[in-house]
Write a structure and sequence with these properties.
Blueprint (H helix, E strand, L loop, with lengths): L1 E5 L6 H12 L3 E3 H11 L2 H11 L6 H12 L8 E4 L5 H14 L5 E6 L2 H9 L1 E4 L5 E3 L18 E2 L6 H15 L1 H8 L3 E5 L4 H13 L4
Bound molecules: adenosine monophosphate (AMP).
The site of adenosine monophosphate (AMP) has 17 residues, from helix 2 and helix 3.
Length: about 220
């Protein structure tokens, strides 16, 4: 299946992607994670992206488009993929369509994770991310039983630079202005599946799987 996860920052895209990837056997492609890895490694892309990412702004469409095009051309993505954090603008949706044509592929569904503003702020300000494997967790969540340690790999939990309070507000604003128009864009194309994203990880996971199963193949 070829799926896109759409939703505001903090909706739980990363958390759900980890579960869905296992259930469906398709690679999880997170543009945010790819950018953070490039920044940490100090690659040319990372150097260009660093300030934008850390201040909650989007990197240019062409730059992220190129990264995604290269990633989708890899063999593990031939049978399907789960895109997390891309597309984020209507322009990027166009880039994705153009990228899929030569691969003879098309999207099966866009899973829209819906969450209100108060819940977004609460989730993001309490979010911690594993410095080693990138898994997200929440300071009050069941996953941080052993404080400060990732339950998946034992790595150190840190706050993402762009989860700081002053940056979160900008990310939500950028989402509303630039990404939310994709909801109507994909609804018009009949690809949108609405998934309420409030509730436990397990509850949302069941809704996500039901939404995917309702999408054919
Ligand atoms: P995420 O991990 O998806 O929340 O992404 C973290 C940050 O990476 C975003 O706030 C942007 O600065 C950047 N980013 C990730 N994906 C994209 C994208 N598709 N287009 C532009 N910027 C992106």
């Amino acid at each position: 299946m070829r799926l896109v996860l759409l939703g505001p920052p903090g909706a739980g895209k990363g958390t759900q992607a980890v579960e869905l990837k296992q259930a469906l056997g398709i690679p999880h492609i997170s543009t945010g994670e790819m950018l953070r890895a490039a920044i940490a490694a100090g690659t040319p892309v990372g150097l260009k992206a660093k300030e934008l990412v850390e201040s909650g702004r989007l990197v240019p469409d062409e730059m992220i488009g190129e990264i995604v095009e290269q990633r989708l051309a890899q063999t593990d993505a031939a049978g399907g993929f789960l895109l997390d954090g891309f597309p984020r603008t209507v322009g990027q949706a166009g880039i994705l369509d153009k990228t899929l044509v030569p691969l003879g592929a098309r999207l099966d569904a866009v899973l829209y994770m819906m969450l209100d503003d108060a819940a977004i702020m609460e989730r993001l300000s309490g979010r911690r991310t594993c410095a080693a494997c990138g898994s997200p967790t929440h300071v009050t969540g069941a996953r941080s039983k052993k404080e400060g340690t990732c339950e998946r790999c034992g790595g150190r939990l840190v706050q993402r630079e762009d989860d700081r309070e002053e940056v979160v507000a900008r990310r939500v604003q950028v989402y509303r202005e630039q990404t939310e128009p994709l909801v109507e864009h994909y609804r018009r194309r009949g690809l949108l599946r609405e998934v309420p994203a409030a509730g436990s990880v397990e509850t949302v996971q069941r809704r996500m799987l039901a939404a995917v199963q309702g999408s054919g193949s």
